[in-house]
Amino acid sequence: MSGESAGQRGILEAIPNPWPDRDYEVSCETPELTCVCPRTGQPDFATVTISYIPAASIVELKSLKLYLASYRDQGAFHEDVTNRILADLVALLAPKRCTVRTSWNVRGGIHTIVEARHP
């Protein structure tokens, strides 16, 4: 995991799961994930979908919004961003299951989708 990830994780907040004895899926999606290509310095844009089955905690949504916005000026490859988001959420929430899917806008004629899963 990247060194930047630990600092970003501090933005994320967990709150108690109101239904800890029930398995249910939470899905959050935004088309506003951005980062910077580490090779060209050009911006990259993606839709990110986060789905998880919570255990004791759920993610506080405003903190998730701020956390995702923190990637805006970072140079990172698509695969790195996707896996860092997953790692940070797993470290914060210890969910029963979690999937992070990023769908990146076409760049150089290539549409990239990255999906990372826990466990």
Characterize the largest beta sheet: strand count, sense, and whether it forms a barrel: 4 strands, antiparallel
> Could you state the oligomeric state of the chains shown?
single chain
CATH fold-level assignment:
GTP Cyclohydrolase I, domain 2
Level of helix content? 25-40%
Q: pLDDT below 50 for ≥5 consecutive residues: which ranges? A: none
Strand content: 35-45%
Number of helices: 3
Radius of gyration equals 14 Å
Count of spatially separate domains: 1
Annotation, overall tally of beta strands: 6
Class by SSE composition: alpha+beta
Mean pLDDT score: 93
CATH class division: Alpha Beta
Level-2 CATH architecture = 2-Layer Sandwich
CATH superfamily: GTP cyclohydrolase I, C-terminal domain/NADPH-dependent 7-cyano-7-deazaguanine reductase, N-terminal domain
Gap between N and C termini: 16 Å
- Order of neighbouring strands in the sheet with most strands: 2-3-5-6
Overall 3D form: elongated
Summarize the structure.
The protein is an alpha+beta fold. It has one domain: GTP Cyclohydrolase I, domain 2 (2-Layer Sandwich).
Please describe what this structure looks like.
The chain has 119 residues and is an alpha+beta fold. A 4-stranded antiparallel sheet has the order 2-3-5-6, with helices on one face. It is elongated. The relative contact order is 0.24. 27% of the residues lie in helices and 40% in strands. The model has no long low-confidence stretch (mean pLDDT 93). It has one domain: GTP Cyclohydrolase I, domain 2, CATH 3.30.1130.
